[in-house]
Specification:
seven-stranded mixed sheet; Rossmann fold; globular; binds S-adenosylmethionine; alpha/beta; single chain; 9 helices
Length: 223
């Protein structure tokens, strides 16, 4: 099931306009490899969210080759927020994004793209299991973004919740999972996403919504 009508997707894509050349290259690579990046519409949303909470520390679970971390230097990049803060004197306050990725090859590609755009110095790529790496990185985060294997979503929620500051955001991609969340008898990944959504929406310390753009993005504000 396509969540958003393809004509609307196209309309929005046209409305948002062209992207930074490195992002366009990343999108081309994603198409070639059939690799699931968040894409420009969600990238723009991430950028806006980061600006809204004045994000300086972001932890990303499942970074692939860096598209969502980069997510639009000019038009949709939430890493841009961090870089911008860095340039404009908040470096001392520790503006940074932690990327986590299971594949060394993706890390290498991600770092190459980020270097090409001059963004590498604010990004720390960790290779391994995001659910373990988060325990090794100290401190709270303004935003934790979840985009790992879907079976890992409930565990990712448990890990993320205590690490987000009050007024910060938990953001998760693919929470409508091509509409499969509406199926009664679902596969393991779908069941995990349904559990994640159920648990997130029954928490009293988070105000959660799902933005039904692309594959569904959960946005939850820590009260
Ligand atoms: C959907 S892709 C991420 C795409 C990326 N967020 C973007 O939009 O550019 C998911 C990535 O998470 C990685 N991954 C899956 N489970 C993981 C885990 N538990 N820890 C770290 N990385 C994981 C996979 O290797 C894959 O590259």
């Amino acid at each position: 099931m396509q969540i958003v009508d393809s004509n609307i997707e196209k309309y929005l894509g046209d409305l948002y306009g062209p992207r930074h050349q490195v992002l366009a290259k990343m999108e081309a690579e994603a198409r070639e490899r059939d690799f699931p990046i968040v894409g420009p519409l969600v990238g723009k949303l991430l950028y806006q969210l980061a600006r809204m909470v004045n994000a300086r520390r972001i932890f990303e679970m499942g970074s692939g080759f860096g598209y969502s971390a980069f997510a639009a230097l000019r038009h949709a990049a939430y890493i841009y927020v961090i870089i911008e803060r860095y340039w404009w004197a908040l470096a001392a306050e520790g503006g940074e994004i932690h990327c986590t990725e299971g594949s060394e090859a993706n890390r290498e590609k991600g770092e190459t793209y980020l270097r090409e755009a001059g963004l590498q110095h604010r990004v720390k790529y960790h290779v391994g299991n995001a659910l373990e790496i988060i325990d090794q990185v100290e401190g709270d985060f303004d935003i934790i973004f979840i985009d790992i294997d879907k079976q890992g979503y409930p565990a990712a929620l448990d890990k993320a919740v205590p690490r987000i500051r009050e007024g910060g955001l938990l953001v998760a991609d693919n929470v409508l999972w091509s509409g499969k969340v509406t199926e009664k008898k679902a596969d393991i990944s779908t069941e995990a996403i349904k559990e994640f959504n159920r648990r997130l929406f029954t928490r009293t310390d988070f105000a959660a919504s799902i933005v039904p753009v692309r594959d569904g993005v959960a946005v939850a504000y820590k009260i």
